[in-house]
Design brief:
Order of helices and strands: HHHHHHHEHEHEHEEEEEEHEEH
Largest sheet: 7 strands, mixed
Shape: globular
Radius of gyration: 24 Å
Length: 427
């Protein structure tokens, strides 16, 4: 018993030392000059200290209670607290001033798109990125994870009565989105976007009037394909995908989307089957760039590029809804801004088509909300480029996740094709 008490005392002293280290690290960063950023860091350090005492120490006490099996709480507190402490000490993955200018660092960061991360660190959730909002929460204090769960539950509740015919019938408009309130930047972000913590987006870029002025329509006349579909991450599969059978992976979903756009809507579509992530995902975007540039050079008629992906989410999150009696995977449009919080604009990843890319995904999201409420997640904005500079009409789509079935993913291709046709037809 004495040994246990000594251990607890040592741990408490360690917590006190950690709290002092947080404060010292911040004071060393701020120096003698008090700035707005310094005040923010001091506030964060104070919060860290309170968290260490209020959450971590009770966990130690519980862990020491006569072997009642409460040690799990102690370790859960460690996992909650120490990543945040590490963040304050500057040990996060985000690039520093030296690493930010390294193209290899950028490519590795791009490769993290769609990679599964621990549940408490999931970034592909809902919320805004504002300087006065701590990373991981939105302005109302909800965690990003809670927001995604709430949004997905709402989509599940928006199911419709099953049809006797389980085929797909394109929807008529279900509702009309009022664009007036969306002229307010914060309202627009709240309703349409998730801004990743590694980047920023301002009202000059997210502007509903600019988005609606952009003409995204194309003509089906003329020779050659109008649409290119490819997969930077060709190895992504679903819960029941068969290893080695690409028809059951994201590649097979690309085949399905190609067939619908061709047979039902009359587009000529080129489905490029290049594989760029077989050995490693790390350089998939750089590996694919040269090939896609050559495809576009050889097919100048292509006006629309779709990089079709499958997302990764916590296992208990299910991105699915009942759409006219068919289980249908929910999907998300994704934009890269070529900008990080640490570096600002990334000059050598300049995207001359950024405004058009953003307008395209906004118009797609708007049509989805009007014709298929709840089917799409909010548009995700992240800091890098993801080869989206190649065409003004470029979509990166995360269709379902690793725990969706292939059937759910295939079913999502019908409404996705319909939404795309609505935008490309200028309706």
């Amino acid at each position: 018993m004495t040994g246990r008490l000594l251990l607890l005392a040592a741990l408490i002293l360690g917590i006190q030392a950690a709290a002092r280290s947080c404060s010292a690290a911040v004071q060393g960063t701020v120096g003698q000059e008090t700035t707005f950023g310094g005040a923010m860091l001091q506030s964060i350090a104070a919060e860290a200290k309170m968290t260490l005492y209020d959450q971590f120490v009770p966990g130690i006490v519980c862990a020491g209670e006569k072997g009642q099996g409460t040690g799990w709480l102690f370790w859960e507190q460690i996992k909650c607290i120490f990543p945040f402490y590490g963040y304050l000490m500057g040990e996060t993955w985000e690039e520093g001033e030296a690493g930010a200018s390294n193209l290899r660092t950028i490519m590795l960061a791009e490769a993290e798109e769609g990679i599964m991360v621990p549940e408490e660190e999931v970034t592909e959730q809902e919320g805004f990125a504002q300087d006065d909002v701590p990373e991981g929460t939105d302005s109302m204090g909800e965690t990003l994870e809670e927001l995604l769960r709430t949004e997905n539950e709402a989509a599940m509740q928006q199911t419709q009565e099953s049809m006797t015919d389980y085929g797909f019938i394109p929807h008529e408009r279900q509702n009309q989105v009022d664009l007036g309130p969306l002229r307010d930047y914060e309202t627009l972000v709240r309703q349409f976007y998730t801004v990743d913590g590694n980047t920023t987006a301002g009202s000059d870029e997210l502007n509903v009037d600019k988005f609606m002025e952009a003409d995204m329509s194309i003509s089906k006349d003329g020779g050659g394909p109008q649409i290119l579909i490819y997969h930077t991450h060709s190895q992504e599969g679903y819960s029941d995908s068969v290893p080695g059978d690409e028809s059951t992976s994201i590649m097979g979903v690309g085949d399905r989307l190609t067939a619908i756009l061709t047979e039902k809507y009359g587009y000529e579509v080129l489905h490029h089957r290049g594989k760029y992530d077989v050995e490693s995902r790390d350089d998939a975007y750089s590996n694919s760039l040269g090939d896609i540039e050559r495809v576009l050079e050889e097919n100048p008629s292509i006006q629309v590029v779709i990089d079709l992906h499958r997302d990764a989410v916590p296992e208990e999150t299910r991105l699915v809804m009942d759409l006219d009696g068919r289980p249908t995977a929910r999907f998300m449009f994704f934009n890269g801004l070529s900008r990080t919080r640490n570096t600002g604009n990334i000059a050598y990843l300049y995207n001359e088509n950024l405004d058009s890319n953003l307008a395209f995904s906004f118009q797609m999201q708007l049509k989805a909300m009007e014709y298929y409420p709840g089917l799409t997640r909010r548009i995700y904005l992240k800091g890098y480029r993801y080869n989206m500079h190649l065409r003004p009409r470029y979509l990166l789509i995360e269709l379902g996740a690793q725990n969706n079935t292939l059937e759910e993913a295939m079913n999502a291709c019908d409404p996705l094709a319909h939404i795309l046709d609505l935008v490309l037809s200028g309706e």
